[in-house]
Amino acid sequence: MIELTERDEKQLKEKGISKESMQSHINTFKEGIPFVQLKNAAVIGNGILKFTSSEEKELITFYDSKSKDLDILKFVPASGAASRMFKALFNFLDVYNPKKETLDAYLKRTNDKDIRIFSEGLERLPFYKKVMARLPKNFASQGEKVFHFVSELLNDNALNYGFYPKGLLPFHNYGDVAATPFEEHLKEGALYAGSKGKAKLHFTVSEQHEEMFKKEFAESGPRVSEVTGIKYEVDYSFQKSSTDTLAVDMNNNPFRNEDGTVLFRPGGHGALIQNLNDQDADVIFIKNIDNVAVMEDAKAVADSKKVLAGVLLKVQEKAFSYAAELDKDEVSDNKITEIKTFLMERLNVRFSNDFDSKSKSDKLNILKSKINRPIRICGMVKNEGEPGGGPFWITNAKGEVSLQIIESAQIDMENEQQANIMKNSTHFNPVDLVCGVRNYKGEKFDLLKFVDDKQGFITSKTKDGKELKALELPGLWNGAMAFWNTIFVEVPLVTFNPVKSVVDLLKESHQA
Predict the structure, then answer these.
(1) Bridge partners (DSSP) listed for residue 489
(2) How far is CA 2 from CA 151, 266, 453, 456, in A?
(3) Nearest to 348 by CA among 315, 381, 325
(4) Which parts of the sequence belong to the DUF4301 domain (predicted)?
(5) Phi, psi at residue 385, to the nearest 5°?
(6) What is the DSSP track for 279-337?
(7) How far apart are CA 339 and CA 347, in angstroms?
């Protein structure tokens, strides 16, 4: 067991981390995290559903007919800072001097594609007027204009957008109003997450940004309510310090800061399974803060969400009735076969080869275990070369086969067979989920019981000039939901509009 000083123990207590948890992090570093074993890429007809337009309409109608009696929540991971979005612009400020070089010369010398796109599209940026109102009217050159524009956008004594949370930046220009992603999520919520004239939204934010989000809601909330006729209940949570993970040196000993304290780092978006576990609703929609559409695309986006929610409610209806029957323990052999078939065909559950030779009581226990799980319906878009996780059938260490969303970092790309399965993948995950987290009695599942701890990541970092190893928890929609029942559904590309770099705001999908 790890030896801790009195100061270490005090630090652990303050963070809410147990000594056992710290030891388990060390054990993970020592043992390593194995690559996942891909069995097949999930494709249409084998792991991914694709509906006809008439089937979609039926699912939308079904959801609409049920939604007024449901407790619905929209859960939005929103703690991402905008600094990464402006990486190319920060670099430009560091290396470009408009007094010594023209912008054309700089672009030819560096082949800086992002700055070329940015400078050519300057006037179409949602914050163009706001920035220009703070600058002199005339510039000696285009290079000087772009340089001063970027300085005004990012410098901490100016607009300081690099400090902002991504969710509070202007994204879409509607003339009088430049809407933030936060505002767009409110509008979207009215279209598919409202019930009885109300919509509930929960945002996970950084503690330092909470007041900024509250201020934005005070400004945009009444405006959106007036247009949508919906009253909003909005609340916030922070990533818990108890989910921070230990960093170690190259010998797997706790990495210590220069003041002697142990270094802990945020555990990544997988830590948010704790925040999700604190929520309770019949239907929970999950979507990242930066994935928002302009209002002209909002209906198509909302219809897609309703299709996913319709799938959830239909499959849940059947699962709940079977779960109730299983609890009575008076189940015929024919009913056992029927429930097993439902689990395999509708919920993508796989059984061991010896299931049919087991005793009746063992079969019932297995069926109860498989059916009494949270359900996630995950939208999948056709692969357009965007980075992100993909849908795969995998085999875990116990030989169990399941549908999972897998990141490329979890795959052994040096293994030719595994690399080929990865290349055969046709779809990827845009973080578009509809979740059922209650059982047939209306009780909420403890989501922490359905996490696969073996799906985290170990990465190499440096601090104070020293190398260290960091641990990232299993991702929220990856290993943190590994033991949920899973259905993948193809959704249209219009539902996927992430903004990873500032130049993404110049794409047609973000031009209102």
Answers:
(1) 49, 379
(2) 49, 21, 21, 22
(3) 315
(4) 6-511
(5) 85, 10
(6) ---SEEEEE-TT----GGGHHHHHHHHHHHHHHHHHHHHHHHHHHHHHHHT---HHHHH
(7) 11
CB neighbour class for 243 (10 Å; exposed up to 12, middle 13-18, buried from 19): buried
Would you say 473 and 480 are in contact if contact means Cβ atoms under 8 Å apart? yes
Q: Which of 377, 391, 392, 301 is nearest to 346 (CA)?
A: 377
Cα 319 to the center of its chain, rounded Å: 26
The model's pLDDT over 75-121, given as tens digits with 9 standing for 90+, comes to: 999 998 888 999 999 999 999 999 999 999 999 999 999 999 999 99
pTM of the model: 0.95
242, 16 Cβ separation under 8 angstroms? yes
Amino acid at 192: Y
For residues 68 and 174, membership in a common domain is answered with yes
**Statement to judge: residues 95 and 226 lie in one domain:** no
Q: Does an H or E element contain 382, and which?
A: strand 375-382
Co-location of 250 and 309 in the same domain? yes
Q: What is the DSSP string of 228-286?
A: H--EEEEEEE---GGG-EE-B-TTSSBPB-TTSPBPEE---GGGHHHHHHT---SEEEE
284 with 429, same domain: the answer is yes
Residue 475 CA, distance from chain mean position: 8
Task: With cut-offs at 50, 70 and 90, classify the pLDDT of residue 449.
Answer: very high
Statement: residue 385 has pLDDT above 80: no
Containing domain of residue 149, as a range? 87-154
- In a domain, residue 96? The reply is yes
| Residue 476 β-bridge partners | none
